[in-house]
Specification:
33% helix, single chain, 70 residues, globular, four-stranded antiparallel β-sheet, alpha+beta, Alpha-Beta Plaits, 2 helices
Length: 70
């Protein structure tokens, strides 16, 4: 198991949390996504996966949800 926390900007509400959780959670090997929402600031997205994830893959999933890694 691998757990990594990524800083994400632009998230403001529960809808944002849902969008990022769905996109990142769809990556192969992801078993859990937990988000510490900081509205208007830098939220912390903690991803647990079977193997370490490629940061670019996580960035692409976050981008697909409409947000960016900080």
């Amino acid at each position: 198991m691998s757990t990594t926390t990524y800083p994400v900007t632009g998230m403001t509400c529960g809808h944002c949390v849902t969008a990022v959780t769905e996109e990142v959670g769809a990556l192969p090997g992801v078993t859990d996504v937990a988000i510490d929402l900081v509205p208007g600031g830098t939220s912390q997205v903690t991803v647990t996966s079977d193997e370490p994830l490629d940061r670019d893959a996580v960035a692409a999933a976050v981008d697909e949800a409409g947000y960016q890694l900080a």
